[in-house]
Amino acid sequence: MLLGIALGLAALALAAAVVLAVRVARLQRRLDILPEDGGIFEALRRLDADLAANEEAVAALRPVVQSLHERLPGALRHVAVVAFDATGDLAGGLSRSIALLNERGDGLVFTVLALRSESVFYVKMVRGGRGAESLSPEEQEAVARARPR
Q1: pTM here?
Q2: DSSP per residue over 78-99, as a string?
Q3: pLDDT at residue 90 above 70?
């Protein structure tokens, strides 16, 4: 009978030891994030200094981002290319009209006419989606395709 009680107490002690070992392992993992020298306050001071430096860097970038935001509508961001045959011969389809427009529909349209013996290059201004001078049908199509939606 005493042996049974002793074995029961030993099993209970073993179970308690296993539970405590698991808890110690969990605590050890939590403590692993602390600096080895125990200087938690120094680590917090370094983190605070890093955060302040990052906030200063963000503050320094704000005017740059604002400037880019203000200039973005003027950037040539919308592009379209129209291929066409300027001569009607078998090797046609080599001519191109290329429209480059900004958010306001302003920009340029380039046209390259590939002819048999030469190539001709035109550049025309576009304002508000319309040519400053008359546009060919291919140039109009390129501008229409490039228009911001």
Answers
A1: 0.56
A2: EEEEEEE-SS-STT---EEEEE
A3: no
